[in-house]
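Researcher: I'd like a structural prediction for the single chain below. Treat it as a standalone chain; there are no partners to consider.
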Amino acid sequence: MAIYDKHADSPERLKNEAEDITLKLVRNGDGTATIKWNIPSISGCSVEDLIYDGIVVTVSSRPANYISSSPQNGEYYDADTTFDSDLHTGDKINVASVVGAFYHDRTTTEITVTDVANKTPYYVSAYAVDQVGNYYRQGVHAYSLPTGESETDKSGPEQPAFHDLQIDTPEGITVKTRTGLAKGATYTFRVEINGDCYSFDDLRGSDMQTYEDIASVLNKRLKLLVKPILGPNFPNTGKFQVDESNKKVYQWDGSQNIEQDAIFLDEDPALPVIGTYWYKPSTKELRIRETAGWALVSAIIEFATDPSNPSDGTVWLDKVLESNGGLDATNTTAWVWEAGTWCKRNTIIQVRNPLLPPILSSGTYWYNETDGTVSGRNVDGRKWDEVDPIVWDTDPNTISDGDFWYSGATELAFVRIAGEWSDVTNIRYEATEPTNPVANHYWFDTTEQRLYQRNGANDAWVEINVVIAATDPATRESCDLWWNVDVGIDTLFKWDDVNNEWDEVDAFFQSVDDPASPSALPGGTIWYNPETEVMQQITGLNCSNVSFICSMYDPSNLPIGVVWLNTADGTFFIWDGVEFVSIEAIRDEDDPYGVSDGILWFDGDDDQLFLREVGAWVEQVYSRDSLASEVDTYFFNTVEDELYQWNGTMWLVSCGLASVELLFDRAVCFDNVPNINIDQFGQFNDFDKFGRDIVRFKTCATGCDQRIEVDSTQSDAIFVKINKPVIRYAPATGRSTNNNGPMYRELGVGTDGSPDERRKLQEQIRVALGTVSTTVELTKQQLDECIDNSLLMVRKYSSYSYEHVLFFLDVLPNQQKYSLTNACVGFNKIVNINAVHRMRGGFLGTGTGGFGGNDIYGYAALQQLYSLGTFDMLSYHMVSSYIEDLQYLFADQLVYTFYEDNRTLSFHQIFYSNERVMLDAFIEVSEQKLITNRYLSLWIKKWAIAEAKMMLSQVRGKYQSLPGPNGSTTLNSQELITQAENEKVELREELFDRSMQDHNADVQSQFFIG
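Model: Treating it as a single chain, here is the predicted structure.
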């Protein structure tokens, strides 16, 4: 980014970048699909500058709802790319499976997912994440996402509903305190959970002798309310599932399938049938059952098409075996079928690629026939170093007087005399035969490195055996070289100084070409790797895989009994002399007739499954369908008295509907006092300074829609019959989370999460400013700022941005503060409270005149005392003023303060009894509704365009003009500023002259005359 670029906070930057992402699901047709997305491309930013640092991709059978299906900030998820919820081993977010989780990854843009069912709808969502684990929770989606999701789906740190019963005794109790319940009697217990009533009428006193026993018994009965499967083991544990298509048998261990050793055969595998074929896949060996046992079928051909009818270009590897059963690499040959004839090809059988240079070790030597030098291989330097071996046809150890030596270092010849080397005199060193030779004189041929002596008759040259060596050949050191050039030997030796002997060199090349260079191969050379059993055809410097027939027989002229394995579908055939006839073969790693205990056998003819036990077959019950339970199935372990719930991949300990816990000597909420109803609002954590012994019943689920109430009024109820007095507290409903910050930023309140309306408005702004015919130099972030400013003006000055609603609130004695966070009632959407009306007033209530105790009806009764026809308007006005004074005197007009930031409503009066009041309030209207409101949409668009013009003028105002091919171009910066200022003046007048107000729900006071 540039020096002067704006660096917004991470959440805002993540939002801007994430909305640039598009998501796409492409089915591949083979049970797989590809999910694709793009890395955000923000103008002026490189990939390194992005706040985007990865993405989480989810899939579900239901659409996402922006709230419960989106990732939670600070959480990191594990992914599994399967769509099948039964096989998925990754994390789940509500009902959505995480199929992709890429953290600190700005390059990955697609994944391939498996187990994609045909004709099944999938809802795919993606959520961008930054470096500290914050997500763009609205996400992007590969489908049309419905907007306006209910706030009741909101997830978060919500609280369950509960109902407390206090054991009221000064001395206190413990879990082992006796309850006083009679052992021979039965008792009842009734509870209402979320509107459903449950009654237990058969609780035995013998099982509830202590308070710990009561909690244990009631917890067990409450867990059974979900009607779980009962048993000591998880459902279907130990049962078998048969996958006949893949010839596999699984056993369910309670949470997953375990593959078992199984034989798929139509006949009893423990009774050998003569003529049965058995194929072992790991070794590719085929055997036939004979009287004496299994016999190996050596004549077997593996090929994808009928080998007896080869097509042009088919390769046949004429396999020749050695006596030990190994492949004879020297005599094995490859042939190619060409127009009805097998044509021989150059064939190489080796593991190493023949195109690669040979691997030469140290101790390798090369005689270069071109320049006559001898070199040794320098492995470290990967080069040849020239060496000077002793060249002679006799062992240098036998050098004696009279032998000759030519020194390559001094280029002189010597003769051995009395154990010493002496210079040879009267010798000529010439490349050609000397002219005018002298009898008994010597000539050394420098070209052929040969020594001659003129005979005494001076008519011929006689060759003399000479040692060729750079140094004294009679003195040997460790690893000196001797090249024995004797006819028929021609071998290089190395001196072993330890053992005082000559050792033959294994690798001694004599050639014109460098042996370290790869050999030139004829075109069409076939290379077969016996380790990998892969064949390749070599053309130039390229290799290409070749499918081939491997057979010791000519495929076009096969003998009877040759077996063909069709590698395309795994079927077997045998050649009868005319054609291949189908045969059946058992595929198994172990001898199918060597059946031991614990082996399973599936009889395909009768669809029966057997288990080998003590040498006999015992029939087993099996299923072809998955043994996994349906998602959210409950199971109660009768041994552990524990409730479990299946989440699609594992069993998790579950609470069920409700539970009981004992809170002994614990501080309890001050607001939770007898006969107090704390429904519809959250309480503050102000605690008593003294302890209480509480039996608490609470819901397992959380949220403001949860309810629980225990009925302890029955004559034979447990908490009536115990030996301690019980104080019954009012039930407390579940609580929702407390929202912070402006409500117009709250998901599900001020916005439903859909970016569609903003995107459309952004495009309208661009069009109004001249795109596509001219460039509009505004980024998406700047356009968002224009729209935000327009919405802020509307929310500040127009009553259309708020909805006028009425709520009822139950107030409690001696409590003045109330937290308005209940999402179920809608308190969480309140932005301001206009008035609070008492439904039961101090004037004309039940104690005054008996007019029903309701202000509205009290007013009506009072007005009826006077008839407009019997007294004048002044009298009517005086009576009305009198009533208004009475309202203040008797506290009918409530004085309060509401704080939007912490959702707190504080009353300045004290209530002395339970009472219901009415809240005259305004709630937030979402930005999506504001942008599409028939009265506001045009104004919002105009103001946003004016804001965009002002921003654009700042961009273009940096330069007065720009150079161009036809002269300079003047920029319209000042013109844009003038337009924007004039348009804003007109729009403000329109906003302030009340044409932009909803007179049915106006936040501001108003007065009309006429």
